Amino acid sequence: MGVRIGLETIAARTVGRLSRVAGRGGGTTLPGKLLWKVDPGAVDALAARLPAGVALISATNGKTTTTAMAARILGADHRLAWNRAGANLLSGIASALLSADGAELGLFEVDEAALPEAIERTLPRALSLANLFRDQLDRYGELEVVAERWRTAVRTLPERTMLVVNADDPVVADLAVGRERVLLFGLDDARHARPTLQHAADSKYCLRCGAPYEYAAAYVGHLGDYRCPACGHARPPLDVAAREIELLGLAGSRFRLATSAGETEIELALPGLYNVYNAVAASSLGLAMGASVGAIRAGLEGFSAAFGRFERIPAGKRRIVMLLIKNPAGANEVLRTLETGVPPVLVLALNDAIADGRDVSWIWDVDFEPLLPHAGRVVVTGERAAELGLRLVYGGLPHDRLEVVPSLESALDRGLELTEAGTDLVVLPTYTAMLALRGILTERGLVRPYWDGDAP
Ligand SMILES: [Zn+2]
């Protein structure tokens, strides 16, 4: 076994170098795909060699950001094998294991559907499960299918594994029931709660009896402090909580992180309650892997956004602020962030490749309405620009404030032209539109290619 791994490792690393040289996808998954094809069992063997073990993170929303935050926290004390480019299938984990010489700790973001196999092959010390939103449905089917996969996968966890779950998501919190080693995290600040669930909420009915939950506080989509009035099923007590949360618009947020190991103030350079969730999830995973509260604070404060999810990119005298939108729940949170200061110019980009979701009808579930009366000029772009424009006009945006510019590059330039010097151009793209825009900005020398950096 040892000799075979040696040869395959060398072969796969060589392909990785060639792939980087050839400029094909940064070489982030090709060697892993090769190893995965030649010998899937090599992943088990490579993971087992990590002296500090493996931590896994899955969720429908926010897992790339959460993993990048956890990397800052855990990377202070350990050399990491980390699938930083979001290559979150088993082949991507194989690539990360191959490319990290001398790694001590494996930190892997895992696709929701790939989770059972990732658990089986890496036998994690800690597993973080953060949320289940109705996401990428045309790839994975209903929420319930993924939830059932997770239930089965959690039953196969080694007993020593610390299961870290979001107590604010009823389906996810339920995975912790009956387990010895669990850590439950959530938000605890009713000032930021919405009075009622948004229509994009995903999990509103009691898991035990089917009656609608009542929310003392709903924070992001269906995440919050829920209780069933019929049978009493309720959010479990929090082991790790974010309290006294202050949202500072696009500048970020501030909150008090309360844990059994102590409390600390956190300043986060990312906007919105959804990023507070990501930070609390990363903190909880850090605790589960032995990090101190001080290390968590230092890690989160040193963190600047994960690749592309939230970026500020200087462009001459202006700044481009790019926030990924990919489904109603996520888009609603991004828009909610902007409500505190609606930008004068917005570029919205909608593509319909597989990674975006072929069916773009989800834009009709996004709450654009509160924003539209205050938006000065909106440029819509991408493969489905016309449909997006129609959605906004139906939502109340006057025709004369809308521009439809299908070419991403032209739309970006138009947005920059409309933006006053010294201010921000806010761009909200779907996934492949974000990659394309990032490619354009890279060609102009404004951002580095994503594989060519240290921590994002
Ligand atoms: Zn109930």
CATH class of the largest domain: Alpha Beta
- Distance between the first and last residues' Cα: 36 Å
Radius of gyration: 22 Å
Helicity level, as a percent range? 25-40%
Q: What's the pLDDT, averaged over the residues?
A: 85
Query: In CATH terms, what is the architecture of the largest domain?
Result: 3-Layer(aba) Sandwich
Sheet/helix structural class: alpha/beta
Sheet with the most strands?
A: 9 strands, mixed
Low-confidence stretches: 21-27, 450-456
CATH superfamily of the largest domain: Mur-like, catalytic domain
Q: What is the total number of structural domains?
A: 2
Strand sequence of the main sheet, in spatial order?
2-3-1-4-5-6-9-10-11
What is the count of helical runs?
A: 15
What is the molecular shape? Answer: globular
Bound molecules: zinc ion
Number of strands: 17
Note down, in words, how this protein is organized:
- The chain has 456 residues and is of the alpha/beta class.
- The protein has two domains: 40-301, 3-Layer(aba) Sandwich (UDP-N-acetylmuramoyl-L-alanine:D-glutamate ligase), CATH 3.40.1190.10; 310-443, Mur ligase, C-terminal domain (Protein-Tyrosine Phosphatase, Chain A, Alpha-Beta Complex).
- Helices cover 35% and strands 20% of the residues.
- It contains 15 helices and 17 strands.
- The protein has helices spanning 2-21, 30-38, 41-48, 63-74, 90-99, 115-122, 137-140, 143-155, 170-173, 273-288, 293-301, 328-339, 385-394, 408-418, 431-443, and strands at 54-58, 80-82, 105-109, 126-129, 162-166, 182-187, 214-220, 223-227, 240-247, 253-259, 262-268, 310-315, 318-323, 345-349, 377-381, 402-404, 424-429.
- The strands form three sheets. The chain has a nine-stranded mixed β-sheet, with helices on both faces.
- α1 runs antiparallel to α2, α2 (30-38) packs across α5 and α3 packs across α5.
- It binds zinc ion.
- The site of zinc ion has 8 residues, from loops.
- Zinc ion binds at residues 206, 208-209, 211, 228, 230-231, 233.
